[in-house]
Amino acid sequence: MSNGEKWSLENAAAGAIAGFSTVAVLHPLDVVRTRFQVSDGRGGSCLPLYKNTAQAIYSIARMEGLRGLYAGFYPAVFGSTVSWGLYFFFYSRAKDRYTKGSDQSLSPGHHLVAAAEAGALVCMLTNPIWLVKTRLQLQTPFNQNRPYIGSSDAVRTIFKEEGWRAFYKGIGSGLFLFCAYEELRKIAINLKSRREKTDLKDGDRLLNSFDYAMLGGASKVAAILLTYPSQVIRARIQQRPSSDGIPKYLDSWHVASETARFEGARGFYRGITSSLMKNIPSASITFVMRSGFDVAITITREWIACITGALHSTKLWGICLESCFKKQ
């Protein structure tokens, strides 16, 4: 296995561990955000009307218990772990391909292309997971449809009732975060290197945990503000059809036109408070843990190299001593 392939696998492991670690604590906010996103305030929905994030959490906990607050938890954990792991793996491979294995830095254009390429591949592979998560999070005791009994039952039912294309409803959003992070990271490295007059090649070492937390949070804020309308559209189009099998929305354009017509601009930002409350710390923790994992991998690699070198030197020394004794 080449050094580039090893580094790609290490990045995948770092991303997977970081993604997994942030879901459990913040998942109730994800449930609240999803329910706010699909609530158009026009009635005809099985979801209760929530006033704000705190009231929504209290209401869900009181009426549905812990199960309601953690609806869709397993696909959320699996999706977060897989998506971050795959993203860092594909992104590292793309960068290696564009640099052709050399140590030269990528141009901003190549950074964006590599990030978009990795993001597109991740979206194609994980969109079914996010659709199942959304469906499970929108289930309430007031649903008219037969409820999904877990993730596997949801997959079987969706495939049986709607076909495989249903798993790719709402695909096309979620790429901006990755591009924003890499560009913000590059800006931070440039600014900090100018202040400390350090070579840009050591940029990763210039960033401490606080810097990574700020980068993760800032990139997530930028991504949310710029892409949130598309997230609302995706959540609404991923809703389960009514009991008669008729979906509420035909396509993304239908969602956008209906939302603008009945709710105005505010409709495209429903649930943004709970989204920010969830995603800013989530992104910060993810990138802090990923950077820490990278440092740990680097230290471990150097330690193994030192041990290997020492053992090799000891072996050579033993050969020399043995040769000297034979001559005597």
From TrEMBL:
<feature type="transmembrane region" description="Helical">
    <location>
        <begin position="69"/>
        <end position="91"/>
    </location>
</feature>
<keyword id="KW-0813">Transport</keyword>
<dbReference type="Pfam" id="PF00153">
    <property type="entry name" value="Mito_carr"/>
</dbReference>
<feature type="transmembrane region" description="Helical">
    <location>
        <begin position="12"/>
        <end position="32"/>
    </location>
</feature>
<keyword id="KW-0472">Membrane</keyword>
<dbReference type="InterPro" id="IPR044712">
    <property type="entry name" value="SLC25A32-like"/>
</dbReference>
<keyword id="KW-1133">Transmembrane helix</keyword>
<dbReference type="GO" id="GO:0016020">
    <property type="term" value="C:membrane"/>
</dbReference>
<comment type="similarity">
    <text>Belongs to the mitochondrial carrier (TC 2.A.29) family.</text>
</comment>
<keyword id="KW-0677">Repeat</keyword>
<keyword id="KW-0812">Transmembrane</keyword>
<protein>
    <submittedName>
        <fullName>Uncharacterized protein</fullName>
    </submittedName>
</protein>
<feature type="repeat" description="Solcar">
    <location>
        <begin position="6"/>
        <end position="97"/>
    </location>
</feature>
<feature type="repeat" description="Solcar">
    <location>
        <begin position="106"/>
        <end position="195"/>
    </location>
</feature>
<dbReference type="InterPro" id="IPR023395">
    <property type="entry name" value="MCP_dom_sf"/>
</dbReference>
<feature type="repeat" description="Solcar">
    <location>
        <begin position="207"/>
        <end position="296"/>
    </location>
</feature>
<dbReference type="InterPro" id="IPR018108">
    <property type="entry name" value="MCP_transmembrane"/>
</dbReference>
